[in-house]
Write a structure and sequence with these properties.
Layout (H helix, E strand, L loop, with lengths): L5 E7 L8 E7 L7 E3 L4 E6 L5 E8 L4 E4 L2 E4 L1 E7 L7 E8 L3 E3 L2 H4 L11 E6 L19 H9 L6 E7 L2 E5 L19 E3 L19 E2 L36
Parallel strand pairs: 5-14
Antiparallel strand pairs: 1-2, 2-3, 3-4, 4-12, 5-6, 5-11, 6-7, 8-9, 9-10, 10-11, 12-13, 13-15
């Protein structure tokens, strides 16, 4: 299944000298077809459930300075305007800590923040906050092979999906979402809980999991591929995530 309103369509520019001829399903708000086939490759996806967000409790002084990882960072405030059809625009004040994330508004969870220590703010970090071009599924529409399919998926780091594709030569499973290459998990530093923003090791290193570390397969060992939003590595089978080579996600459905 896929969230949002989907509709079936066929887009063909090749007959007029263009670069794609693809049929499948699209949804409002994102250009391109998210599941379908062109003349060479059929593709679809399910949710990948990668952990691409963390939360920290951070002290922010009265003069607008956040104490993060032993450093002082000036917060930035801006207004986001949400236009409402038939009504007055809604204005939301956003407080951002550059390089870390945005402060969770008290209007969402109440005051004081119940998920942060007294006197501190909860800050949300998300790899999707990065400015990216709105290419989304357009690259998939033009792929002519499984190699090109995998390259297209890796070119969409904002998409948290298990992509599966097939052509006349084989099958492929590939995830391309940007997942932070976090520091090792400890009892005091668990990315599936609110972490201490003053601990430098709790912050994201300036790196992401590599393409080789992200889930992928050509089904060579068994000849078939299946995905049900489960743990693609099997590292959570023993109920632990702190003994894995790297952290991808703590819980799978």
């Amino acid at each position: 299944s896929f969230s949002g309103i989907t509709y079936a369509l066929h887009l063909n520019s090749m007959d007029a000298g263009g670069t794609f001829d693809v049929a499948g399903f699209s949804f409002v708000g994102a250009p391109g077809i998210f599941a379908g086939h062109n003349r060479d490759v059929a593709y679809t996806e399910t949710s990948a459930f990668a952990d691409v967000m963390d939360m920290w409790e951070v002290e922010i002084t009265d003069d607008g300075v956040a104490l993060v990882g032993g450093e002082e960072i000036a917060v930035v405030k801006r207004e986001e305007v949400i236009d409402i059809k038939g009504g007055e625009p809604e204005v939301i004040e956003v407080t951002e800590i550059p390089g870390l994330g945005v402060v969770v508004p008290h209007t969402l969870v109440g005051s004081p923040i119940p998920i942060a220590a007294t006197g501190k703010e909860a800050v949300l970090g998300w790899t999707g906050f990065k400015a990216r071009p709105a290419r989304f599924f357009r690259g998939l529409m033009r792929v002519g092979s499984l190699d090109e399919f995998e390259e297209a998926v890796l070119g969409m780091p904002e998409m948290t999906y298990n992509f599966v594709a097939a052509d006349v030569d084989g099958i492929s499973y590939r995830v391309g979402v940007e997942v932070p290459a976090r520091n090792p998990i400890t009892p005091e530093r668990r990315p599936y809980t609110v972490m201490d923003g003053s601990d430098p090791m709790a912050l994201w290193p300036d790196a992401s999991l590599t393409a080789e570390q992200l889930p992928h397969s050509r089904g060579a060992d068994r000849g078939w591929i299946a995905t049900a939003n489960h743990d693609p590595y099997g590292v959570t089978a023993d109920g632990q995530v702190d003994n894995a080579p790297f952290y991808y996600r703590a819980i799978f459905p």
